[in-house]
Recover the amino acids of this structure.
């Protein structure tokens, strides 16, 4: 439990309820061993507070993955388009090379 309290304390928490729960639990830890109701209240507060962040982070990750998929598709399409343009350039250069040969002969 002490490890969890330290991990939670590492976050910049501005929510008053979570701050109060954190301070209360840290005081209980400092005084000895927190009682089961104190542990339960603290765990509930941590779960409530961090569950919202988990949803936000998951939504952000999903959005970034979607953007990366679109970027990869765009990159694939551009690479294919470049290949077509390269082949067209080679064909045109071949015609112009033949034209140059005929002009010098």
């Amino acid at each position: 439990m002490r490890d969890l309290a330290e991990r939670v304390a590492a976050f910049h928490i501005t929510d008053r309820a979570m701050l109060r729960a954190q301070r209360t639990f840290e005081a209980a830890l400092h005084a000895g061993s927190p009682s089961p109701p104190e542990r339960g209240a603290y765990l509930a507060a941590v779960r409530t507070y961090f569950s919202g962040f988990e949803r936000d982070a998951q939504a952000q990750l999903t959005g970034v993955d979607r953007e990366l998929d679109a970027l990869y598709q765009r990159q694939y399409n551009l690479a294919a388009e470049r290949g077509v343009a390269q082949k067209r350039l080679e064909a045109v250069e071949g015609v112009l090379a033949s034209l140059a040969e005929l002009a010098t002969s």
User: Anything to note?
Assistant: Residues 27 and 62 are 39 Å apart (CA to CA).
